[in-house]
Amino acid sequence: MLDDPEIPDLLTPEQAGELVGMSKQGVMKLIHADRLPARQVGRQYVLRRSAVADYRETREHL
Question: I want to staple 49 with a disulfide (CB 3.0 to 4.6 A). Which of 4, 9, 54, 58 is the partner?
């Protein structure tokens, strides 16, 4: 599903964590605190690559 060219760049919480340097659990905490937008598809959460990049950039400027 994540490699389908018809679907925008989507990441799992694990992949997002790798990009921002944190664990899957850390990403899940951000999702549940509404600090990182995500959608639940079945039992899996997916995040837009652009949202993760925006979060990473904001985090780097702190």
Answer: 9
CA atoms within 13 A on the CB side of 43: 0
Residue partners of 6: CB distance under 8 A and separation at least 6 = none
- Please name the amino acid found at residue 59: R
Q: Which amino acid is at 34?
A: D
CA-based diameter of the chain, in Å?
35
CB 46 within 8 A of CB 10: yes
> Reduced to 3 states, what is the DSSP secondary structure of residue 21?
coil
- What's the CA gap between 44 and 56, in Å, rounded? 22
Per-residue pLDDT of the chain (62 residues; tens, 9 = 90+): 455 565 569 999 999 999 999 999 999 999 999 999 999 999 999 999 999 999 999 987 76
